[in-house]
TrEMBL record:
Keywords noted in UniProt: Transferase, Transit peptide
Organism: Ascodesmis nigricans
Reactions performed catalytically: oxaloacetate + acetyl-CoA + H2O = citrate + CoA + H(+); propanoyl-CoA + oxaloacetate + H2O = (2S,3S)-2-methylcitrate + CoA + H(+)
Cellular component annotations (GO), alphabetically ordered: mitochondrial matrix
Protein name in UniProt: Citrate synthase
UniProt GO molecular function: 2-methylcitrate synthase activity; citrate synthase activity
Active-site residues from the entry: H310, H356, D411
Family: Belongs to the citrate synthase family.
UniProt entry tagged with the keyword Kinase: no
Any one of the GO BP annotations: citrate metabolic process
Source organism phylogeny: Eukaryota, Fungi, Dikarya, Ascomycota, Pezizomycotina
UniProt cross-references to NCBIfam families, sorted A to Z: cit_synth_euk (TIGR01793), PRK09569.1 (NF007128)
Amino acid sequence: MAPAMRISTLALRSAMAQPSTQFVVKRAGFRYYSAAAKPKTLKETFAAKIPEEIEKIKKLRKEHGSKVIGEVTLDQVYGGARGVKSLVWEGSVLDAEEGIRFRGKTIPECQELLPKAEGGEEPLPEGIFWLLLTGEVPTAEQVKALSAEWAARAEVPKFVEELIDRCPNTLHPMAQFSLAINALEHESEFAKAYAKGINKKEYWNYTFEDSMNLIAKLPTIAAKIYRNIYKDGKVAPIKADADYGYNLANMLGFGGNKDFVDLMRLYLVIHSDHEGGNVSAHTTHLVGSALSSPYLSLAAGLNGLAGPLHGLANQEVLLWLTEMKKKVGDDLSDESIKKYLWDTLNAGRVVPGYGHAVLRKTDPRYTSQREFALKKLPNDPMFKLVSQVYNIAPGVLTEHGKTKNPYPNVDAHSGVLLQYYGLTEASYYTVLFGVSRALGVLPQLIIDRAVGAPIERPKSFSTEKYAQLVGASL
């Protein structure tokens, strides 16, 4: 080749580094085409968006920062800040009538658009994480690379495994889960870098690395807790060429059941994010706003998820249904179920799995699981019972008059599907919820650090002060 036609190594490398699908190098009238260039990684995709997001927020605050976007009533103050517009959450928005949207996309749209495993019917959890962080639907190639990256980061430190092994089987699985994640703080790249002194603009970088490492390790930790408490303590190794949902299912001991693996993928996607105001999401964000590492922040959020009014409800539903079957016996008529519902309410108890703080219609996450059940286990007795309750409970709750939303939420169905495939230990279900919720709350934590979100510090008053504010005398 003549000197004029040679391509320097530096020029070639520079061209190959470009994010386009192919690169072209011109010399002396000739064009040299490469094969398809390597697609952007998740980190590269997110990093490219940061400057634009920061400018968007600055512009919004500068031009509209003084505008009032809502008002707070005294009922909201004493009602748990219900409905108060005060949080920024990019990944999802929950509409009272239509349910959750992930970056503007409904659950059915996510099921259609997000990449699936070969031979699988449900979207991969890697895809929802990518979507929540960047707002973009990843390609199958990008998701496959993310699966491999998580598998490569999955090794759990020996001392954390030993810590789990030393936990008594009587310690609730969620307590063990939170304990193990807190212990992983020892590995925090963010904490170590902050201690040395880093530029604020680099906070997101270390938060990203911690979040990726943490998510990668959750299946191993979750599976070890399950196998220790309920099985023989042995956990299958991570498969480097498998997706996140498969690895979790396989390490739990259910990798040989294709339908369970697909259920686990669906479960991880639909439980991942549900706006920023729920306890687990808000707590993770709040603790993270103090610049606590992703490990400490997620552990705090999981402690909130463990409450019976939040994630523990999926355990409560299955126990309630089992109790119903014992008390009602073989008479599962509409009238007997209606009576049992009234007995539950008249005893001062709630009907678990029904009602929601925001939703006023059937939870789309419930619907997606119901559709899965209709395809895979239409004749299962417990599924039939859930369907029967679904037809009767809204009428009873409406007549009762104390439930703003008489329709089922996601918790009303998930346990029934898990028990069908043999994962019958209801006290463990919230751990799976926790693995999924990490996929939703950690993207927002990365975003918070990237855009420089401040520490959260709302104003509080005493009851006496509130009385003064509304002109009341106590």
